């Protein structure tokens, strides 16, 4: 079945350093989504990428979708303590009927920031 | 606007007991999902629904049942709880596949 792999599993950075997490799918994706989960919280949608080679920015966050639509990355510039959490990528998954019925999540990257 | 609401937030069960987790959404979304989250495993889909009266199996459906009698509610049942079902359960809803999923606050379930 479809697999979405994410690396690294954990990333320790000093506050102010940059951070990048990578997501790779075993299949071509029609789109990819990114979510953030704060410690003890629930996943919150950040962004969706649809087009091959697409790049989107949200303040210090930059999201990229690969040309082959099988990989994606999230880059945070100059991390702040508010960036702490787990970042998940997710791609459409097929469970029945051939249509994309849900989301398959990567295992996430835990971002730990040392002040 | 409440979004997605899960009850209860915490629960401790003994092995073999049963319980039902309730998810309610007020966004008129067609699609609803139940995920479980375990350390190092990410979010795994248990069951989902593409509309009122429909349910389907996800990646890890064994030991769970679901019902969607009303569009706004999606129930997850454990008929005979096992320690392996100790997890954090998240409900989510979406207007359609490929769109943003809205998650509830989660239910932390411990089976002893």
- SSE succession of chain A: EEEEEEEEEEE
Any idea what the shape of chain A is?
globular
Q: Quickly count the helices of chain A.
A: 0
Using the alpha-carbon principal axes, give the shape of chain B: globular
By helix and strand content of chain A, what is the structural category?
Answer: mainly beta
Amount of beta strand of chain A = over 45%
User: What is the tally of helical segments of chain B?
Assistant: 0
Distance between the termini of chain B: 36 Å
Summarize the amount of helix of chain B as a percent range. Answer: under 10%
Return residue spans of chain B where pLDDT drops below 50 for at least 5 consecutive residues: none
Mean model confidence by pLDDT of chain B? 94
Strand residue percentage of chain B: over 45%
Question: How many E strands of chain A?
Answer: 11
Could you explain the architecture of this structure?
The complex is a heterodimer of chains A (115) and B (112). Chain A is mostly beta strands. Chain A contains no helices and eleven strands. In chain A, the strands form two sheets. In chain A, strands 2, 4, 5, 9, 10 and 11 form a six-stranded mixed β-sheet that branches. Chain A is globular. Chain B is mostly beta strands. Helices cover 0% and strands 51% of the residues of chain B. Chain B has no helices and eleven strands. Chain B has strands at 4-7, 10-13, 19-25, 31-38, 42-49, 56-57, 65-67, 73-78, 87-94, 102-103, 107-111. In chain B, the strands form two sheets. In chain B, strands 2, 4, 5, 6, 9, 10 and 11 form a seven-stranded mixed β-sheet that branches. In chain B, strands 1-3-8-7 form a four-stranded antiparallel β-sheet, with no helix packed on it. The radius of gyration of chain B is 13 Å and the shape is globular. Chain B starts with a strand and ends with a strand. The relative contact order of chain B is 0.33. Classes of the chains: A mainly beta (115), B mainly beta (112). The A-B interface holds A 1, 6, 9, 30-31, 33, 35, 41-45, 48, 88, 90, 92-93, 95-96, 99-108 and B 31, 33, 35, 40-45, 48, 50, 56-59, 90, 92, 97-106.
């Amino acid at each position: 079945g479809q697999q979405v792999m994410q690396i690294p599993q954990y990333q320790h950075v000093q506050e102010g350093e940059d951070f990048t997490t990578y997501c790779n799918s075993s299949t071509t994706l029609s789109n990819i989504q990114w979510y953030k989960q704060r410690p003890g919280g629930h996943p919150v949608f950040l962004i969706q990428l649809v087009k091959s080679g697409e790049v989107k920015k949200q303040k210090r966050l930059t999201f990229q979708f690969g040309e082959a639509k099988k990989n994606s990355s999230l880059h945070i510039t100059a991390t702040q303590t508010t960036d702490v959490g787990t970042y998940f990528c997710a791609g459409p998954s097929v469970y029945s009927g051939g249509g994309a019925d849900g989301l398959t999540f990567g295992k996430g990257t835990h971002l730990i920031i040392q002040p | 606007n409440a979004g997605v609401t899960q009850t209860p937030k915490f629960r401790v069960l003994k092995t073999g007991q049963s319980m039902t987790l309730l998810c309610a959404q007020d966004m008129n979304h067609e699609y609803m999902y139940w995920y479980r989250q375990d350390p190092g495993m990410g979010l795994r889909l248990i069951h989902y629904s593409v509309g009122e009266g429909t349910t389907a199996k996800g990646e890890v459906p064994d030991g769970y049942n679901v019902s969607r009698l009303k569009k706004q509610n999606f129930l997850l049942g454990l008929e005979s709880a096992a320690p392996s079902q100790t997890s954090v359960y998240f409900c989510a809803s979406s207007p359609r596949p490929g769109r943003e999923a809205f998650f509830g606050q989660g239910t932390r379930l411990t089976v002893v």
